[in-house]
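User: I've been going back and forth on whether these two constructs are worth ordering. Before I decide, could you fold them both?

Assistant: Sure. I'll take them in the order you sent them. The first construct and its structure tokens:
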Amino acid sequence: MFPSRIRFKIFILVCVMGLFSCAGKRPENLGVKDQHLAPCPNKPNCVSSQSQDDSHFIKPLTYLGTVEESRQWLKEIITSKPNTTLIKEESDYFWFEFKSALMGFVDDVEFYFPQSEQIIHVRSASRLGYSDMGANRKRIELLRQTFSPSAQ
């Protein structure tokens, strides 16, 4: 076990981290507007399947079957992951918060299901900071592997 001085320092560190939460303020500009998700900010910590620039662009998810089956499958996959919270659900839209286990950083991840195509547009963005070391892109690519039609 740690000596009492070290335990005290750890306790203080945890208290300070709690005071200076890494969650940030929940964005007010998210959702679907005119069939589009919000654009990525001019920072490398965001990816979107509707982005016009290569640095932020990521392919949308694709699915077979009905939109309702795909919505349910995607929801099951995401809600089974630790530290995820469903913030908003509509017939053609999901918004989840993904919270990092160590520091509590929050990423906002959105999914838009246009009725005219068998795709799911996605946007994943860090709420705070500048760079995410590719975490949002990696998250969506891992999700793509789990969600792919062959995995259903």
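The second construct, handled the same way:
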Amino acid sequence: MNLISKYYEEYWSGKHGWRPPNVLYPDTVGVLKAWVPASSRILDLGCGDGKTYAQSLHTTARHYTGIDISMTALSDFRKLGLDSIFHDLSTQLPFEDQSFDVVICIEVLEHLFAPAIVVAEAARVLTPGGVLIIGIPNAAFFLDRLRLLAGRFEAGGSPTSVGRPWEDPHIRFFTERSAKKLLRTYNLATESVVGLDHPMLAALPIVSPFLAKFTGGYKRLSKIKTPLDHLARVYPRLFSRHLMIRARRTT
């Protein structure tokens, strides 16, 4: 087991004191359902435990395959009855060219040393005209801009790393513009950008775990809307903490 694999085994097991919450964000699922055609062959890169959107999308897919570097996450993913493969995303995907109609990569690219490899491989395995959907934290989110003005930086990958960004699982950072440029490099034309906050109250370091505890958990907290949820839709590059981008293979 290499260092990266070991880290993400601990990340999904909760040994660092936190693991990604099993919250089915309605806005995320709604966008994915609108963007993913029925009867598609879907590849989910960095699928995790599958308890956020995979369990919803796979019901209308022709076939759904997940890939992750954590056996802990894949064990839960397989319990949903879904096919999965253990794989390091820094290497070539174990699929032939043009094998999938849709590739999904949600909240993954920011965790990778070489996200360009993943985008290039996603383009390779997509059919001509196929769709890549990525979800990324927005480094240009206005609250992060204000933190930088105050001399503070939070990578935002885990509430346990607040004040210690060198321990955070997020190692790459994207804005809407830079993400589009990366996609364009591999002949992927951006068609749509949607801003989500997931929502704001469930995405705040330190504060969210406290609020979740006293509101009945993340699932209930995620249903509480704030005005920022609307602003995120109107002007995502500034007011959204998370961006979802749909791009189509052009060649």
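Notes on the second construct follow. The mean pLDDT is 88. The CA atoms of residues 138 and 175 lie 5 Å apart.
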